[in-house]
């Protein structure tokens, strides 16, 4: 007995094959009746009564330690938790008994559970055993990883039977290291492929145009700073919305018109879409501000050390949106005076 568990939607279900017991029984495999009732949401406190009610007597077996095979008893010595046996034994039911409980269950998942039970019965009929871990390993798509994992698992199971076998222990460690090394190499290859794919996407989505400026540089040009005294990244986008040529950069990498270009860029290890503004867009922004100015508003302190001082300033746009600005930016635009723009070094 290598593994006595079936896993269904996260719930464990103990199973016994004919080689795990020292008596003959109807059917192919025995399932822990209490756990079956729990999965099918019967009254778990009276699971024995539920089994008696729905299962024929010949499909039910009370399992105690004395009814286990010598091989199973040895497995229990190595792992006492391999199977649950109550003081007076535990009721196990064969596949026909399980199907009776499934038939009388009103749970939607009963149908899926039936498919899983049939799969296990078929596997045991063909191989004489069912190993949930081995079945899971067989689902690994990478052929080499699957072979290495199966080899390691087989050696680990053999070591459980002969834990003092030093040469077997060495083989387990060697196979384990071989599997880990292969996984690391595969992961590095996936990372490299991902980087190459990302570089390809960035190249495809890059439309360079001389003179295009980032939102940060636009803010520096117009001397619009946040309350943290940094170029306000939202300013250019707000003005572009007012002028009608703003486009959300998300999902639009590679776009370009006479006012904006959108490219992929790396910021702090994350690839994002960034919008930049052309010289023509900059001229429109300058003309707009010269003509209409920018509405700013400040809130002054009324008492204490802040009395008469600006404690909050904001720039308000025609669509109702606003950004918070520092005091210097407020002073520049509150007078609506002509601002001297110096493009050198930007």
Automatic annotation (TrEMBL):
Supply the InterPro entries for this chain: BRO_N_domain (IPR003497)
- Keywords of this entry: Coiled coil
**Which regions form coiled coils?**
172-208
What is the protein's name according to its record? Bro-N domain-containing protein
Q: What organism does the UniProt record list as the source?
A: Clostridium botulinum
Q: What Pfam families does this protein map onto?
A: Bro-N
Cite the Bro-N domain residue spans from the record: 12-128
């Amino acid at each position: 007995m290598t593994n006595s568990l079936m896993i269904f939607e996260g719930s464990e279900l103990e199973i016994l094959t004919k080689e795990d017991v020292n008596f003959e029984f109807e059917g192919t495999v025995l399932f822990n009746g209490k756990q079956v009732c729990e999965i099918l949401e019967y009254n778990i406190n009276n699971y024995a009564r539920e089994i008696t009610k729905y299962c024929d007597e010949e499909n039910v077996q009370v399992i105690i330690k004395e009814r286990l095979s010598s091989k199973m008893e040895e497995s229990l010595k190595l792992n006492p938790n391999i199977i649950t046996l109550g003081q007076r034994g535990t009721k196990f039911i064969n596949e026909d008994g399980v199907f009776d409980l499934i038939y009388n269950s009103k749970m939607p998942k009963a149908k899926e559970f039936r498919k899983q039970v049939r799969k296990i019965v078929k596997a045991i009929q063909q191989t004489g055993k069912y190993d949930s871990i081995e079945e899971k390993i067989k689902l690994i798509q990478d052929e080499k990883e699957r072979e290495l994992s199966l080899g390691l698992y087989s050696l680990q199971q053999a070591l459980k039977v002969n834990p003092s076998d030093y040469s077997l222990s060495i083989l387990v460690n060697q196979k384990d290291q071989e599997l880990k090394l292969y996984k690391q190499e595969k992961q590095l290859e996936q990372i490299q492929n991902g980087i190459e794919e990302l570089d390809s996407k960035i190249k495809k989505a890059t439309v360079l145009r001389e003179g295009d400026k980032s939102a940060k540089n636009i803010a520096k040009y117009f001397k619009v700073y946040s309350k943290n005294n940094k170029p306000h990244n939202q300013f250019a986008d707000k003005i572009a919305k007012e002028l009608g040529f703003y486009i959300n950069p998300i999902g639009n990498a590679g776009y370009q018109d006479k006012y904006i270009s959108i490219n992929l860029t790396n910021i702090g290890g994350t690839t994002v879409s960034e919008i930049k503004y052309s010289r023509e867009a900059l001229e429109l922004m300058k003309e707009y501000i010269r003509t209409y100015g920018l509405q700013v508003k400040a809130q002054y302190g009324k008492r204490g050390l802040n009395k008469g001082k600006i404690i909050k300033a904001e720039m308000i746009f025609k669509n109702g949106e606003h950004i918070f600005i520092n005091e210097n930016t407020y002073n520049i635009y509150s007078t609506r005076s002509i601002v001297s723009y110096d493009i050198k070094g930007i």
